[in-house]
Structures are given as C-alpha cells and as structure tokens.
Automatic annotation (TrEMBL):
Cu cation A binds at residues 92, 113, 122. The chain holds residues 102 to 459 of 638 of the full protein. One of its GO terms (molecular function) is catechol oxidase activity. The lineage of its organism: Eukaryota, Viridiplantae, Streptophyta, Embryophyta, Tracheophyta. Keywords: Copper, Disulfide bond, Metal-binding, Oxidoreductase, Thioether bond. This is Polyphenol oxidase. Its cofactor is Cu(2+). Binds 2 copper ions per subunit.
Length: 358
C-alpha cells in the first residue's frame, strides 16, 4: 500500500525531543472534511511561470523587488497563518522529522527523504510556496529563482541572498563559504582543502556528469529508482539510514545543504537540519535547482518520456499542503511528473556537464 501521513495525529518531532527547539512542527490543524484533492485547473498549462537562475536576478529588478517584497510579507504573517514563513519551514520539519505517523501504522513515522518520495514531495512543497508568494503580492505568475550550481556562474551562494538588509538574508550560514566557489561533493568542514577554482570547477562538473548523464545511459532496469529513490511503502521503517536515497537526493543535493549551513552554531542550522532548513530562503532556491535536475532528467536526457517506477504504491502516495488561500489540499505523487502541466518551467541554460567528455 502507498505510504500516507496520518495528519490528524501530528506530534512533536523525534529530532526535537532534546528540547533544542522548544517547538513542534505541526501546522495549524487540518480539517479533513474540507480538504480537497488537488485538481488541475485552467491556469495550469497556460500560465507559464519561468524559473530563472538566481545569479541573473539583478537583470530583472522588477522581479527581484517582487521576490523580496513577497518574502517580507510572508515573514510578517502571524504564526496562525499556515502561509507564514515559519509555518512554511515547519512543513519541512513535520514531513522530515517524523511528526506524522504513517496512516494505519501508528508505530512508524513518515519521512520524505531517502526514498522515491523525495522528488515529488519537494516539487509540491515548492509549488505551493511559489503560489503563496505570488498571491501575497498579487502576481499569480511569480516564479522562484533557481540556484544554478551546475554552471560555473552559479557555483557560489547567489548575491541576492547575501545582502544583509534583505528579507532573503539568513545569518545562519557558513561564513567561510560566502564568496567561495562551491565544492559540490562537500561533506564536512574538516576537509579544509584549498583546491584552486579551476580544479574545483572541473570536479564539480564531473560530479554533475556522473549524477545526470551516466545513470541516464545505463540499461539498468531499475534506473528510475536509482535516480529518484528506493521504494517506500506503508509499514516500511525509515530509521535514519539514507541508503534509499536516489542520485538526485545524494549528488549534490545533500552536499549543498552541508556547504551552506552555519559553521558556528551547534545543531547545523539552518540548511543542515531538517527542522530548520526551510527557515533559510535559500533552501527554496536550492530545491528549485534540484527540481530542475529532475525536469532535465525527464526532458533532456529522456526526451520527455522519463522512466518512473510503475507502481501504484508510488503513484498514489499523497501529502497535504496549505495552498495560497490557506486551504488544505491533498496532492498525489502521480500528479507531480510534469512541471508544465503544473504551470511552470525552467529557463534554458547552457549545461556544461552535458558536453564534457571523460
Ligand atoms: Cu527536504 Cu533539501 O531537503
């Protein structure tokens, strides 16, 4: 059976039992009687939100002002509003730190990482976050940026997130990495290596190639699961082991989180811990590129006909989110496969990892 969250039984997240947060991550209670299934509407398919690289944001001041204004409004909403910045961050906390028991399996807790749920959950999460931002500034076509870390020009923390007086700023980041070219396979601060930029760039591109191109040409019958993540069904236990994570989640998604998190405060905030990651506006920009990788895997590497796990347990898994009008909605994995159907796409950029030979 598909794995489903028992949202009515939301509890303090496991990771928070140590009191480090003094908070829980449950959203304002869901009224399942008024919760509707997601439906594709008229505006899907023809309103095209185009997500663009964050490093080019200064080329479009109007968009940049909209983005900052929307985030500022989101941050000013009260906690009681599920669209507020802190409640949006809690969505990640609730689904990732075990706030929800698995429906029908009270002894297990739902976790959206390290399995085939990862790509869809995060796509839906951004989908609603983006619609909420658009609603707050009354621009339904507002589109998120993406952190273009697979291109040399995007391999640093994007400037727009570093202006200290901006709503996009977050102090809980690694202060040694603010101007540094990223290491896309970064695992911990102890490495301390100082590779020169050209070599680092070559390594990064090779890593991207391994993540994106090699698996797509493999004839492994399970390559969809290799890329997206392993099966995860009702009753399965997820015990902090990440072996079920697909390539999309491991390379370089995880390293970018670790690269960005604070190097000084205890607890890996913000980007390095599930409960706090969504507090950094950069999280959504990072995930926009992770989502773009899924979309490139589909459209560029598999001509639109991407391999996906053909199981009902996968397709029929669902999550709940609050939409831009603060109404709860139930969304299915099966409706997450096509970004254009969801009304958005990614602006084309050069893909350096497609063209190198090695
Ligand atoms: Cu839910 Cu980047 O993680």
């Amino acid at each position: 059976a598909p794995i489903l969250p028992d949202v009515e039984k939301c509890t303090l997240s496991d990771a928070l039992w140590d009191g480090s947060v003094g908070d829980h991550c449950c959203p304002p209670p869901f009224d399942l009687n008024i919760t509707k299934d997601f439906e594709f509407k008229n505006y899907h398919n023809h309103v095209k939100k185009v997500r663009r690289p964050a490093h080019k944001a200064y080329e479009d001041q109007e968009w940049l002002n909209d983005y900052k204004r929307a985030i500022a409004i989101m941050k000013s909403l009260p906690m009681s509003d599920p669209r507020s910045h802190m409640q949006q961050a809690r969505v990640h906390c609730a689904y990732c730190d075990g706030s929800y028991p698995v429906l029908g399996h009270n002894d297990t807790r739902l976790e959206v990482h390290a399995s085939w749920l990862f790509p869809s959950f995060h796509r839906w999460y951004l989908y609603f976050y983006e619609r909420i931002l658009g609603k707050l500034i009354n621009k339904p076509d507002f589109a998120l940026p993406y952190w273009n870390w697979d291109h040399r020009d995007g391999m640093r923390i994007p400037e727009i997130f570093k202006e200290m007086d901006s709503p996009l700023f977050d102090p809980n980041r690694n202060t040694n990495h603010l101007d540094k070219m990223m290491n896309l396979s970064f695992v911990s601060d102890e490495e301390g290596s100082d590779v020169n930029e050209d070599d680092q760039y070559e390594e990064n591109i090779l890593l991207m190639r391994k993540a994106m191109v090699y698996p797509s040409v493999s004839d492994d019958p399970n390559k969809a699961e290799l890329f997206l993540g392993s099966p995860y069904r009702a009753g399965d236990k997820m015990e902090g082991d990440v072996s079920g994570a697909g390539i999309l989640e491991r390379m370089p998604h995880n390293s970018v989180h670790v690269w960005t998190r604070s190097n000084t405060i205890k607890g890996n905030q913000d980007m390095g811990a599930f409960w706090s990651a969504g507090r950094d506006p950069l999280f959504y920009c990072h995930h926009s590129n992770v989502d773009r990788m899924w979309s490139l895997w589909t459209d560029v590497l598999h001509g639109g006909n991407f391999p996906k796990p053909e199981y009902d347990d996968y397709r029929n898994a669902y999550f709940y989110f609050y939409d831009e009008n603060a109404n709860p909605v139930r969304v299915y994995v099966r409706d997450s496969f096509d970004t254009e159907r969801l009304g958005y796409k990614y602006e084309d950029q050069e893909l350096p990892w497609m063209s190198i030979t090695q």
